[in-house]
Specification:
2 copies of one chain form a homodimer. Helices cover 26% and strands 27% of the residues of chain A. Chain A contains 17 helices and 30 strands. In chain A, strands 1, 2, 3, 4, 5, 14, 15, 16 and 17 form a 9-stranded mixed beta sheet that branches. In chain A, strands 6-7-8-9-10-11-12-13 form an 8-stranded parallel beta sheet. The first copy, chain A, has an 8-stranded mixed beta sheet with strand order 19-18-23-22-25-24-26-27, sandwiched between helices. Chain A is elongated, with a radius of gyration of 25 Å. Chains A and B meet through helix 1, strand 3, helix 7, helix 8 and helix 9 of A and helix 1, strand 3, helix 7, helix 8 and helix 9 of B.
Amino acid sequence: MDKNQLKHLIEVASGRAPADLCITNCNILDVFNKEVFQGEVYIADGMFAGFGGPFFPEAYKTVDANGAYMAPGFIDSHLHIESSHLSPAEYSRLVIPCGTTTVVADPHEIVNVCGVDGLDYMLKASEGLPLSVFLQFPSCVPATPFENAGAKLTATDIASRIDNPRVLGLGELMDFVGVCNADDAVLEKIMVAKNAKKVIDGHYLGLLHGLDAYSCAGIANDHECATAEDLRARIRRGMYVLLRQGTVCHDLLNLLEGVDSKNAERCLMCTDDCQAKTMLEIGHIDNNIRMAIAAGVDPIVAISMATINAATCFGLSDRGAIAPGRRADFVLLSSLDKDMKVLDVYTAGSHVASSKKYLVQTQHVSPENVSGKMNIKDYEAKRFALKLKSENVRTMKILPGSVVTAMSQAKVQLDENGIWHRNGDDIVKISVVERHHGTGNIGIGLLEGFGLKGGAVATSVAHDSHNVIVAGDSDKDMEVAVGELVRLGGGMVVVKDGKVLESVQHEIAGLMTDLPGEVVAQKLASIQKTAREKLGIHDDIDPFMTLCFMSLPVIPEIKITDMGLFDLAKFGFVPVELDI
Amino acid sequence: MDKNQLKHLIEVASGRAPADLCITNCNILDVFNKEVFQGEVYIADGMFAGFGGPFFPEAYKTVDANGAYMAPGFIDSHLHIESSHLSPAEYSRLVIPCGTTTVVADPHEIVNVCGVDGLDYMLKASEGLPLSVFLQFPSCVPATPFENAGAKLTATDIASRIDNPRVLGLGELMDFVGVCNADDAVLEKIMVAKNAKKVIDGHYLGLLHGLDAYSCAGIANDHECATAEDLRARIRRGMYVLLRQGTVCHDLLNLLEGVDSKNAERCLMCTDDCQAKTMLEIGHIDNNIRMAIAAGVDPIVAISMATINAATCFGLSDRGAIAPGRRADFVLLSSLDKDMKVLDVYTAGSHVASSKKYLVQTQHVSPENVSGKMNIKDYEAKRFALKLKSENVRTMKILPGSVVTAMSQAKVQLDENGIWHRNGDDIVKISVVERHHGTGNIGIGLLEGFGLKGGAVATSVAHDSHNVIVAGDSDKDMEVAVGELVRLGGGMVVVKDGKVLESVQHEIAGLMTDLPGEVVAQKLASIQKTAREKLGIHDDIDPFMTLCFMSLPVIPEIKITDMGLFDLAKFGFVPVELDI
């Protein structure tokens, strides 16, 4: 808001100039006193001017809210747009009708692939959308030293973008070990954010007694909370806790057990990873709010978590409430109960969604520097051959519905050259193929419990470095699968008998596509069905979601990267063979 | 906190280096979950490192709190140090034992006298004290155009200091008329603070329907709230409301009627104007807390108002809670009830007060540029002669215990030259003598209900421009009184029969002194007694406090400045005579 805007807003608020818009006949949520009052709201230049009274005789346009509840637009305090496979413009199109008007997005995935170019693309591609997209600069690129990512970012890189007004601070500081060890490189990143007076997002998974050291660094919040005890311990140390409910993680109900009327103001809402299908069928932050209400939380308190609390945590003093001088981001709601529906959505005073319909033309931004990014060397079939010195092996055993694996053991079949071949068991090969620098790195392990029989599935979405991950029992099919991803510039693929059965293109950094969200949801459902029906992947497993977490070495117990098989307990690489 | 400090703090929090201090056996206030827990607290480099556990084997020093309650140090969210007549160092000495460890001070008085030099002196004189003194840049210098102050400050002056880390923003924006009129000069000042992302303090006295326009400017808080309705209206618009209880204003109990568990987080505590006697005999912010508890507020909620809520409002994320990474400003309390006593006070981990005793050597800073400031021209007796064209006059009638006056009427006695002379009634002359620029300005009016008979009292503390104000019935005594103030470089004086009966020196800008607080309190009590006993000033009137508000033209109904008699209802100057 510059001086002229302020001047005009005051003129409107003083009744000396007409408002642009007046919403009448509504039940207004006051998130500060935590009460509802009846009245009208005046808007000018995209901002709230006031609640009327003798001073507001005129507005160019009046909208009768018919007694609907008017709440501030919802804020998602932590998410990765990339996880939806949608471009920012499409993300806006899907979440705005759910009432989400501001997101704090950590472009961790695309920055792991494209470095600072990834951040710049996300800034550009999200500019001017109805959805306000703020970014956190990813703090851990690469996420671990045990894999090759597309970039290695230091404090200097962070400093180059930290002053951007749309960069709120440092993204989830998942290297809590580095923080607690006071590693210089980690502390340097923290100091960049602290000196710029920006917000540092947390991601703490360790033992509670390490939390003191972690919070010394001034971590503002944490979304990696699983229990009431975890929640209260973080709040005690001054962190905000995010009640997470997305497609992947469902923590909200567990966490609510630790929330009461006294600490609710320290709670925020987030989805973290949310797919298009979830947004279309279940909702976004509105779903978190409905669930909290259904669990007994005062509706105004639940909505405050998704509005003013988030604005306070992130220093977004221009939003989060229906109050004079703030951005006119608001929703009209059918009710304040567990069946609450988002009727209409306004951002900066503009009507952007009605009855779940997006009212804005979607803009498309060229991916340019972040297009493709499939720099893979030497992936012919023979490179997927697994030569072993023993038939007693470690396997990565899938635990359905979880991103954790169990380290299991098996006796497998080797040919006369020591080459692994599929026998009748439920074990296939899993490979991570480095795709950023053409190193030719391929890590190979054995995956148990996937169900795949004959063929291969592959994807270029594989946390956190997003190399290509491919599972299969045919070296040729694995080659074809990787080749198809190279051709597409990234995506998902199902191959059988040397032929591509189905594929999905993720042309933006191999992570996202600019197709409409409905199409993305439909394509994803279709390729999942194909993978299950044609390749036999178990029904209780999401073929691609399961794969994409198999490469995350910081999650127990055993994972695979382009550098090999990683055992978290040993915190190092291990051979596939057990007895060497 | 720089990187090395952070590194050391994490080392301590991780048990790899000893803490400086461990407080054991205490009941720790968690202002986030709003609960008390038993434990120990470790401190290093003046900051909290954590709560112990298996990781904290060592501390250089251990203090047994004997089960006392440990709370964050108290924050006074709005005050004027000058109102105490104490230097910042002496202010610290008096309020630290009360548990106040941080103050947000608006140096409105000294800046009205000395301009930016006044701010710079306050910064320098408050540097390195046990008390953390943050300043707000006074927004209204002069307070009105109807008087001559020592400086006229514009947005450019504000911009010259706004980036100082100890300047939190813009001081009380008392020109609410200017804001609501969208005056350019006022908006320019607001934009300086907004662009620097600093806090703008409010001061709104107008009708509630003007509050929308006022809050459009992003005013963060207001301390000029008198009723529950006022409080809720401000909170609804996103302002924090300060529960004020000092020597002069007593709003806390009235305001608590509008506070409930839902909006308490939007309330802060302040004293505004507090004299040494009050601090010594009643207390400071600890008194606000005791009063709130006695009125039924949950003790942890009351303490939160004076700690974390204030830290949140002012963006002081380094304090306000007992949590790792924050400044170790804390108090040990005897209890959490209405008889709560402050036993010990620590700031930045140092023990600074115990059993009401200050443990730190008081530093004295030379006033230099702000010394004296008595630039008065032509104040000989004849200039106090009041020549009138009519014996029917307006008088300023004192309303005991209030800063408001009534406009009253009287018939007075004039000599053959039309010169006013005292008759048997309770009317004396009151004059404001310009002291900043040697203009020779003297405004003269008539004061009713003061009780003074024979003599004069004068002070250089006279809101808001702090010219000299003198009341008396003898022109010679008025001259002697002003002359004595010139000699002292400011202060208070009582004169009778041409002789100074008693005086108090305020050598710092004519507002403050560097004498110990106990001496200041004793001297003030003594000169008040002398004024009452020797000059007959009524017992229900504080002679100097009453005088110092007689020059504030924005307060009803009629006031006097160096430019003349001001009628607030007419918003202009009026003659003393009624019928001309």
